[in-house]
Amino acid sequence: MTDLSPRTLADQVLRWFDASGRTDLPWRDAPSGQRDPYRVWLSEIMLQQTTCRAVMGYFEKFTRLWPDVKALAAADSDDVMRAWAGLGYYARARNMIKCARIIAFERQGVFPTDERDLLELPGIGPYSAAAISAIAFHGPSAPVDGNVIRVLSRLYAIKAVMPANKGLVGEYAAKMLPQGHSGTFAEALMDLGATVCKPKKPDCPLCPWQGSCRARTLAQGTGQAIDFPRKAPKKDKPARTGWVFWVQRNDGQVLLERRPDTGLLGGMTGFPTSAWQGAEISPQRAFDAQGYGGTWQVLDQSVRHTFTHFHLHLGVIKVDWVEGRQTGFWCPLDEVRSHALPSVMRKVVKVVE
Ligand code: SF4
Q1: 189 close to ligand 1 (CB < 6 Angstrom)
Q2: Is-contact 265 343, C-beta < 8 A?
């Protein structure tokens, strides 16, 4: 193992990126050869807690529909939410619209270049601010995502467990930061983590840092998997249960509702549900609480969905509505799918169909 200077390590990874970086990410092909701040920002918002693979199609759809920040700012919010449906974490989409309008209407379409100014905008947290500043403007920022944590935790064999190791990773990344090339450096680290220094099976023989990597040295000869970054034992996610109501009139229309703007799935369209809680309530009690008049049955199939913080199990109650409470709005059956339904509600459609 050779201990190299931060500068040499940065040069090595930049050379590797030049030859082997990912070329299939649509947000990297700005026509000018530079990164377009709008595309960088949009991709960073979409990539929050979401994989590149899941984002690509959405990114292409958004940039086709709204090729620049002014077009997105002028779009109807419902159209944007509809285009976002299925990507999850819907607060991101609402903040994205707010942010686009600030950039377009208050800043003449110009994004701030500085990490601190970017942080003031809706939906941009510390990681996204650092990534946008570095990638779009080569600002002096070193964004630290899961890939960067993994690669640098291995390179330096950092013993602290996640997320306590993040600060130290940030320090190492900042020391390597090549002046004027911070964006390329950020993308290089991300790509190295995504394509070579993979979580379960790193391809060390392809790595530009194979000669310096402490974790690799520690693992050699032991037959053990590379044990970095160190993780705290996993806590089980709690489980919640509830009931979702497929309420249908005799003319075939189905009851939909728009969820409140705040909270989980805020602002999204869905079917009425009971509260989602730890303790299960009977379908009779759930039905009575809704105030619908008509007959009902519990379907054999139910819906399971996992959110970031909990697992959800929804029983499905089909109601032949005759009278009574009808919050929300009626929608012809064949138009239900054209609404911006989040994934959990799409699963309900599948169960009923
Ligand atoms: Fe990751 Fe292996 Fe490279 Fe070390 S040598 S950084 S473990 S790919």
Answers
A1: no
A2: no
